Amino acid sequence: MKIKEKLYEQCVIYVANRLKTVEEIMISNQKGLESETKSSAGDKHETGRAMLQLEMEKAGQQLHGIVKMKEILSKINIENTSEIAHLGSVIKTTKASFF
């Protein structure tokens, strides 16, 4: 397997794992919102709901970022080779390599 194939595969795995984690967080937070019951301590209840809502918004932003990553990955053609850097290139420098 070529280095570009391995790098691409690792990117796909990374995005899939992030997606799974964010989906699990969103499901957990949704269950938390649904199970929140009005207690005698109204402020505590509202604070708990607000915190869960903030977590849902944060997870939604992360989900948006993951969708963008998936879109970029779908545009990569690992078969392309060129002397000019482009999406999907492996760039080797004296300090590091980049994909």
Averaged pLDDT: 88
In DSSP terms (H or I, runs of 4 or more residues), the helix count works out at 2
- Number of domain modules: 1
Shape: elongated
Structural class: mainly alpha
- From the alpha-carbon coordinates, what is the Rg to the nearest angstrom? 21 Å
Could you explain how this protein is built, in words?
- With 99 residues, this protein is mostly helical.
- It has one domain (3-98).
- Helix content is 68%, strand content 4%.
- It is built from 2 helices and 2 strands; from the N terminus they run ααββ.
- The protein has a two-stranded antiparallel ribbon with strand order 1-2.
- Helix 1 runs antiparallel to helix 2.
- The relative contact order is 0.15.
Blueprint (SSEs and pairs):
Elements: H1 3-35, H2 42-75, E1 91-92, E2 97-98
Antiparallel strand pairs: 1-2
Helix pairs in contact: 1-2
What labels would you give this structure?
99 residues; mainly alpha; two-stranded antiparallel ribbon; 2 helices; 2 strands; elongated
In short:
With 99 residues, this protein is mainly alpha-helical.
